[in-house]
């Protein structure tokens, strides 16, 4: 994709009043498109928030029409082609493919940043301008952008009751859990627990830290690849609503690998007992972390999760040590 380098961009101070107005028009058009894209993205899962962004896009269109009328009165029908990417220091907007993966709360935050960024830009530009007419124009645009933030709040109160917002937040949270937390937790449990026996069996059977590390590394990576492909292949997410199989597969595979590497990496330490004691300490931190995640996201009572994970993991660890000493 072609983009202008910083040296090829115009400085804001070099723009004429007509170009500043044209820049404001194109910016309002772009922001309206962004809000409509948010509305389309949210419509199925969060219809109330989608309506908020549709109304915000309508506000942007209204401001755009006001700016076009002002341009027509002062400069005629032809609006110069100038966009934010043509000007140094102008606030950026994320492209469509980066906005598609945002959560509902991230979209809300991004929208507020859009309005706040536009206000700050126009406000600072007005302060640096000595020409009275340009200063007034920039000041008016700054006030308009500040008004956008107030309108966003008002529209949110109009369309999003506390119950509706809570329901949409619950839906967004549930989707996050189904797509990332659940497969990631399954991977972390598998990687942490299933690799305990082979790693510690190898450690006590060989007494060689480097060989133990290589066995742990291969077991962790192999388990990660297996878990990742299994998660991605067994459910495409269309009927279950669990989200993208690629995202779930990556979450599961990466967490499986990390779970095994946690107690494999200490065997990079050349001293056997130092490496082994460090690995055992890390194992217990891993197991308690799994219990915490189960309690935090899966609503499993903490002590029940601790008993299941810590006790089970300890038994697997003990089995590996006994096998390695046999």
UniProtKB/TrEMBL annotation:
Q: Which PANTHER family match?
A: BLR7895 PROTEIN (PTHR33531:SF10), RUBRERYTHRIN SUBFAMILY (PTHR33531)
Q: Which GO terms describe its molecular function?
A: manganese ion transmembrane transporter activity; metal ion binding; oxidoreductase activity
Q: Which domain of life is it from?
A: Bacteria
Q: Entry's Pfam families?
A: Rubrerythrin (PF02915), VIT1 (PF01988)
What is the name of the protein in this document?
Rubrerythrin family protein
Q: Which Gene3D superfamilies match?
A: 1.20.1260.10
InterPro entries in UniProt: Ccc1_fam, Ferritin-like, Ferritin-like_SF, Rr_diiron-bd_dom, UCP035918_rubreryth/DUF125
List where in the cell it is found: Endomembrane system
Predominant subcellular localization, coarse grouping: membrane
Is Calcium among this UniProt entry's keywords? Answer: no
The residue ranges of the Rubrerythrin diiron-binding domain are 19-154
Question: Is Cytoplasm given among the entry's keywords?
Answer: no
Question: Transmembrane region positions?
Answer: 275-293, 305-324
Membrane topology term? Multi-pass membrane protein
Q: Which GO terms describe its cellular component?
A: endomembrane system
Name the keywords, alphabetized.
Answer: Membrane, Transmembrane, Transmembrane helix
BP GO annotations = intracellular manganese ion homeostasis
